[in-house]
């Protein structure tokens, strides 16, 4: 059964001069434990879809269901991890993590123990009392992941969470997040411009058209790649074939707007 369902979702933005159709007739199901990536031409509406799923924007048409319940506003069962870590610089790492529990009204000793266990898994158990300024960019994103997972959401939305990192840190964090989400059996929806990242981390890849965004194609990542860590998947003999296949499709879409 699908954990997340988008049914004929559309989004229009209105101004005094015109109407901008951002998304048209998006229908998509994401199963529990599945990792799905969304790619497409720049500005096509990928992040708009995440914002609607998170309940931060209201769709103009269609419906979105999380565990068969309509999403109508911000939902504590949905975790949202952004490009920047957005840690509060005046709070310690532990205090930053606890804010997620306070906001969702889930702050208690068992949940605080759970977040400290996650912090330990991220290799940051000894940094709980440090300020964010003492951490590297990759460390801050690991803290952001712990904060996102703190309230034990059913669905994680990842909006290019590695884009601001150097390549080596990005690869390490991809592996760590992939391993953590699989271990916790979390469901994730990732928006990315990086085709390699999408292939390495996903079970499925959704390719969107130019705006208004519609689903152009769906790629099912083969089992031999899904069984590997993202770093190992990048070394697999078939990886470049999949990259070229998706690259050509994306290149064709982007050429249509030139």
From TrEMBL:
Source organism superkingdom = Bacteria
Q: Which positions fall inside the ABC transporter domain?
A: 4-235
Which one Pfam family would you cite for this protein? ABC_tran
- Which GO terms of the molecular function aspect are on file? ATP binding; ATP hydrolysis activity
Q: Which UniProt keywords apply?
A: ATP-binding, Nucleotide-binding, Transport
**Alphabetized PROSITE patterns for the sequence:** ABC_TRANSPORTER_1 (PS00211), ABC_TRANSPORTER_2 (PS50893)
Q: Please name the PANTHER family in this protein's record.
A: ABC TRANSPORTER ATP-BINDING PROTEIN (PTHR42788:SF21), TAURINE IMPORT ATP-BINDING PROTEIN-RELATED (PTHR42788)
Protein's recorded name: ABC transporter ATP-binding protein
Q: Which organism is it from?
A: Salicibibacter halophilus
